[in-house]
Amino acid sequence: MKKKDIAINMMEVFKESPYKLFNYKQLASAINVKSQTDKRNVQQVLNELAELGSIEEMDRGKFRFSSKSKFVIGIIDKNSNGKTHLIPEDGGEKIFIADRNVNRAMKNDTVKVLLYAARKNRQPEGEVVEIIKRSRETFVGVLSIKNNVAFVIIDNRILNADIYIPMDKLNGAKDGQKVLVKMTDWTPNAKSPFGEISDVLGEVGENNTEMHAILAEFGLPYSYPEELERMAKNIDAGITPEEVAKRIDMRSITTFTIDPRDAKDFDDALSYRILDNGNIEVGVHIADVTHYVKPHTPIDKEGFARATSVYLVDRTIPMLPEKLSNEVCSLRANEDKLCYSVIFELNDSADIVRYKIAKTVICSDKRFTYEEAQEIIEKKQGEFVSELLALDTLAKKLRQKRFDLGAIAFDRYEVRFEIDEKGKPLSVYFKEQKDANKLIEEFMLLANKTVAEHIGNVPKGKKAKTFVYRIHDEPNQEKLANFSLFIKRFGYKLKTTGKKKDIANSLNHLLDEVTGKKEQNLIETLAVRSMAKAIYSTKNIGHYGLAFDHYSHFTSPIRRYPDVMVHRLLTDYLEGGKSAPADKYEEYCEHCSDREQLAASAERASIKYKQVEFMKDKVGQVFDGVISGITEWGIYVEIISNKCEGMIPIRDLDDDYYTYDEKNYCLIGTRLHKRYQLGDEVAVLVAKANLEKKQLDFVLA
């Protein structure tokens, strides 16, 4: 028996009888050890466990479970260098777990860890004694079949063992293919878990295979159930005279959509007209998805499970069937469409004179791309020029009001790729927010805020009905202070205490200052990291980043399930319905927030994959970069020209022995005292582009 197994089995015996004394013979018998070698190992392991503080020697040769032993519950985390830690659920210091003590636990599993006795100047250490909840059962890997024995090779950053597949569980998969595998069993003494192949993703390196693999890796669907697609095909747009009679008919009013050039799911449209009193009526019209998707139907259940559409580099994985998202609900030009609308009467200062929330029917006159609308705004000529310019002026006033209240301007560019028909990236470009984007953004924000206020803003002494809010907490003071300290080395200042509005103004000033500078992306990234994450909740605390006391998501029900919930609650309450159960809706909110995070992670992974693919034919070339991350295992560098990020392993810095200074974001040479600091400019040579791991390796040039 291996020493590790002896230790695990012995600890089980001690835990079952924590107050009983055991000598080594009793323990050997209890764990069924018979050979002389194993008996010697029992004695050795006993001494090691006593030294670690897991057990204590009460009398010569007699041991019991340590009264000082402490158990901690938390989530398993694995660094990209392979080291394992426990992140305690109570927020305490992370605990190191050596590979020999991981005991079949995997990344993101919820586990119970036995904490070893503290040792001077050492990180807390422990061992996994119980797996409370597996984070996943399915994995993506490459099938290897040799001599009639099959294993699926899994990325060791996720699982330290390959999965054994019985030959009758291959499901038609062939050697070398990328597959989705379900773990079926992992017995305590088995080196590898058992599994069965649930789907064949395809040949390694093919674009479709790799994009599906990214989705499967995050537990996201990569196809839509055919049965639901068939169901959706039978849904009729249903714009009958009877239905129109129940709604405000706005088909005669100038209306248009502005969307990305490759979009097909048009959630929102704007209508514009000048009223007799000189004020302007702006209608924010949103696809009336809940008219077609009824609660608890199969399409609704699938939509809830997905909770969001997922946008990868080269494709959209929709939340709803294509027939609904791209046809029936999509606000396409020159087609009558059913909408849920917030209709504003605004004066010249962009103040709301009055508003109305109503079901409507519209007909969009024009489908603009952002580029087309931007050109008309810039050149002041083209279709619907007066309407676009008037809306642009109002949007700018709305935006200024938000900033006057303390909103933060995170106008970050997005990395985009020009790709060929096979999905190969040909070039990288950066998508920036221009006036046309901001025009749509401001009116969507106004509608979302108005809907949230309509339900959440109640007279003093009255309780608001349960609603789905989009909340954003204030930044963590410690993170903000550390960020402020870091930017000082670049000559920037940030106010971290005082009124919310003053802190926001200081942050906006900083973001303006760094625009166009080499350190812009680094400082913007760290600024975002110092902020809390926006989530969905029934417990309204306002939205810090937007400086709104009430905010919700109402404007994208084709691609976000929280908006579907908002539409239903709003309709119910406008018709006099009672408050919905808060606990149930809070669970729904948590689910939607979790799915949103997974979708964002998959999107980032697809961008990373394309960046590595883009750099594959540039191995050996030299680029200027900025140090974007420092860890104990290496330096991350972002290439300035294309924003591709790679790593220089610390082992390749062979001119000195470097130590990691976490507080000052740097590596310091112990002999020559050379520093590599976050934000430093360096020249790097591309040494390797590993598509399988989505990883670029650099060396200093």
Polypeptide structure, described:
The chain has 701 residues and is of the alpha+beta class. It folds into six domains: 3-65, Orthogonal Bundle (Arc Repressor Mutant, subunit A); 70-133, Nucleic acid-binding proteins (OB fold (Dihydrolipoamide Acetyltransferase, E2P), Beta Barrel); 138-202, OB fold (Dihydrolipoamide Acetyltransferase, E2P); 228-473 and 534-603, no CATH class; 477-529, no CATH class; 619-700, OB fold (Dihydrolipoamide Acetyltransferase, E2P). Helices cover 31% and strands 28% of the residues. It contains 17 helices and 33 strands. The strands form nine sheets. It has a seven-stranded mixed β-sheet with strand order 13-20-19-16-15-14-21. A five-stranded antiparallel β-sheet has the order 5-4-3-6-7, with no helix packed on it. Strands 10-9-8-11-12 form a five-stranded antiparallel β-sheet. Strand 9 and strand 10 (163-165) form a beta hairpin. Helix 4 runs antiparallel to helix 17 (582-615). The protein is globular and about 100 Å long. The protein starts with a helix and ends with a strand.
How would you briefly describe this protein structure?
With 701 residues, the protein is α+β, with helices and mostly antiparallel strands. The chain contains 17 helices and 33 strands. It has a seven-stranded mixed beta sheet. Strands 5-4-3-6-7 form a five-stranded antiparallel beta sheet, with no helix packed on it. Strands 10-9-8-11-12 form a five-stranded antiparallel beta sheet.
